[in-house]
User: Fold this.
Amino acid sequence: MKKLLLSLFAVFTAILAMAQGQSVIYSSDFNSGIPAGWTQSTQATDGGFLSGSASTLSSSYFTFTDPGSNFVATNDDGCNCNKSDEYLITDTIDLSNYSVMHATFKSFYYGSTYNGATEVAEFLYTTDGGSNWTTLATLDPSVDWVSQWIDVSAACGNANVQFAFNYQDGGGWLYGLGIDDFTIFAPYNFDVAVESLNMPPIIGLNNAPITVEGTLKNWGGTTITSATINYSVNSGTAVTSNLTGLNIAPYDTYTWTHSTNWTPTTIGSYDIEIWASALNGTYDQNNSNDTIKSNIEVITLATEKTILAESFISSTTPMFAWYNPTYLNILNSNNPNSSNSRINSVNYHMNWPQPGNDPAYNSEAYDRRIQLDINATPDIVLSGFNSSLNASPTQLELDEMISVPAVVELEASWGFTGTYIQCDAEVKALTGIGNDIVLHMAMIEKAISHSIVSNGADSSYSNVFRKFMDGSSGHLIGSMTSGSTYNHYANSTITVSSSPAQGSFDFWIGTSNMDIIVWVEKSSTREVLQAALAEYTTSGVSEMDDIARYIAVYPNPANEFAGLEIDLIDRSDVTLNVVNGLGQTVFTDAMTMDAGTQKVELPASTLSAGLYFVNVNVNGVSKTLRLNVAH
Assistant:
């Protein structure tokens, strides 16, 4: 831990060249509009950069999320005018007595390409009143507000410095740029924070020894070349690791791995404390961000995790470069929705932006959007956590998520008879996981293509959501304690259409192009605890297709009454056997049935509550359905 008080740094000012304590030189939150003394250079007909709220500065295709206050923005979409080289320029700032200076602000900027034109946003400075500009940084694109941290030390030593935000629409009709909370400040020379502890909150004792790793961020003005990482468990003796040969520039991050693993000896709750010290052999000037603490629960057993990648897209939204090809290339390299993959993918199509006529959009896709609080397309949610505020997740970030052990085991399988689909799932909790556990079964098409596109969007899509088997709310499991197992199955029928209408649940191709993705999540937080690709089972399916068009058990769950419905192609011999969870036959019947739809009553009222297996044998071909009796 950093033990030295800031006041003691007076002793070192003589030997720490150009030492600077953090101080704000200039700032504006834009709540009162564009500051007096600021100027603009614009050829736009709307005045260029304007101040206001998210609602007043937004347009049809460029919608700002609300940062909670007023800000400034230039909106090329709303104006559709000449914003080929637009400047918002500060008044003059005297930096003649400084050698290190940084800038921070929030930006809202897509960085998109449309109809061959690409928008660009930059942060620049001038020392001659704007005759010559020097670019300090090209802004990072995002689908939401993102913090920009920029080293502007190149402007130091000058008395007449002006900074500027520059937006260029490339001569096309693009989107725009929003700016908020602008600050110029002199940073501390040495200020390093432990930003994150990259360890899961729950760890299986079977996974020991545990690698202790995390992320450092250099908030100071000096590049860090060496540091010491320390950790303690339950306030015990510090375990140290010396990092050398580093090159952590200001505002860069560095992922470290401690040289000593942690081996918990028993299950229980542990407090892990991490801190950095000895920065370049000297002291940290800011103690407020030194230490990060985390509580980790060690359980007896944990299993491998499969993550769920949910995307929200539209055939009327340009696929930004961070999504296509960047994100899709990373996703596809992990072979999603395959038996050996640790990633499952579901893509929900939305009905915006205008004209909002994507045919793959329906009400259950909308419901999922509301559940996950999605307000932009494209957008990505990984196992319940939104990941696209800055850009596509990297392979390293995916690997880190996959490496987190899971506390739930999940297996699922599905089959079909004609257009009747049935999916079975088994959930096993390896520890207590709460009382708000929900199971989802999403039916998707592996690949579709259609011609209803606009705004330069794509026309071919993969892993397209069509419908939930239990509805958009999913199936509530409720409370699960350690070692408990829950079995659930659902059935549904599908309709296939060559040109599905928007709002329908129709499939383009059907079962030959279908997957079912199953996951378990906490309804309170939407965190996905485990995901699985339901295994397609062909047992008896193809033969039964030639005998019966449809087989179903209803209602399910059943109370006092249950029935079997079967649609036979020809007159057939049918045998029914109902088996309980112990493998005991509790009901049997045999009959000859005529062609067409036939119904048989099952003795639900005489059965104890629980799960039963209904085996239907038609002319020697069998299919087994599940019946849940709940009195």
